[in-house]
Amino acid sequence: MSEDNKQSKIALVTGAGSGIGRVTALGLLEDGFIVVLAGRRAEPLQTLVADAASRGQTALAVPTDVTDPASVQALFDTIEKTYGRLDVLFNNAGVNAPAIPMDELPLEKWFATLNTNVTGVYLCARAAFGLMRRQSPQGGRIINNGSISAHVPRPFTAPYTVSKHAVTGLTKSLALDGRAFNIVASQIDIGNALTELSERMTRGVLQANGTTAPEPMMDARHVADAVRHVAAMPLTANILNMTVMASSMPFVGRG
Asked: Which of 152, 227, 230, 241 is deepest in the core (most CB within 10 A)?
C-alpha cells in the first residue's frame, strides 16, 4: 500500500457501470476519493477507469456479482489488500421487475429482485461493516440507495417495493449496530432520476388511477451530489434519510 493510498479516502460504488452509479463515481473522483468500481460488466468499469486516469484520478475496476457471496468477498478482499481500508460504500446496485399483476409475474423475477436489492445490499453492507470495524482508524460510512418506493408503491411493483422497504430496515439496523464501531449509515430515497433504465418513464408510467402518464424527471447528477454531500460529512454527523426527487413527480399525494 503506497503513501498516497494511505492519505486518500477510499470509496466503493456498486452498480458503477451506468446510471446513478457511474455519475456518483465520477463525482466522488472529483472530490478526491480513490473509487473502487463494482458491477457485473467489466467493459464500462474499465472505460471509467481510463477516463479517471486521463484526469489524474484513481479508480479500480472489480467486476462483481453482488448476489454471489464469493464474488462480494473477493471484492472486499481486493479492497483490503490494495488499500487497507474503506471509508465510504455507496450500496447502489439494484434491479426492477416488470409492472404486471403479481399472479402473472414469473417467480424468478421476484427472486432476482430480492436477491439483488436485498441480499446484494446486505452482503456488501456486511462486508463493509467487517472491514470498517477491523481497520485503523476504525469506522466508515455506508450509504444505501433507497427509493420513494420505500415509502409508497407504484401499481404492480410488489417485488421492488418490498425490497426497498427492506433496505430501510437494514439502514436503520446498520445505523444502530455501527455506533459502537464509528460506522455510520444513511439512505437516499430517489424519485425519477433520468438514466438509461428510467428513460421509459418520460413516455408514460402506470398511475394509481389506472391511467398511463409521463412523469417529470431530474438529472441523475442531483443524486450524485446528495451522495457526495453525505460522504463528505464527518462521522460525528449524519443524514439518516434523505429524499431526492423530481419536484413535480406524483409522490406527495400518491395514493
From this structure: 227
Question: Are the CB atoms for 114 and 97 separated by under 8 Å?
Answer: no
> pLDDT of 71-107, one tens digit each?
999 999 999 999 999 999 999 999 999 999 999 999 9
In the chain, how many domains are there? Answer: 1
Give Dmax (Cα) for the chain.
Answer: 59
* Per-residue cell: 138: 476504525
One-character DSSP codes across 93-138: -------S-TTTS-HHHHHHHHIIIIIIHHHHHHHHHHHHHHSSS-
Which residues are designated catalytic? 160
Q: Please identify which residue in the block is written with the cell numbers 479516502.
A: 9
Domain annotation covers residue 253: no
Query: Which H or E element spans position 59?
Result: strand 59-63
Structural domain includes residue 251: no
Domain region containing 92: 3-245
Compute φ and ψ for 134, nearest 5 degrees.
Answer: -80, -30
Closest by alpha carbon to 163, among 95, 72, 223?
A: 95
Q: Give the sign of the dihedral formed by CA 202, CA 223, CA 18, CA 254.
A: negative
CATH for 11: 3.40.50.720
The answer to whether residue 27 sits within a structural domain is yes
CA distances from 86 to 37, 55, 79, 131, 170 (A): 13, 23, 7, 7, 19
Please check whether residue 59 is in contact with residue 29, taking contact to mean a CB–CB distance below 8 angstroms. yes
Whether 250 is in a domain gets the answer no
Residues of the chain above pLDDT 90, percent: 82
> What's the rounded Cα separation, in Å, for the pair 189 and 242?
6
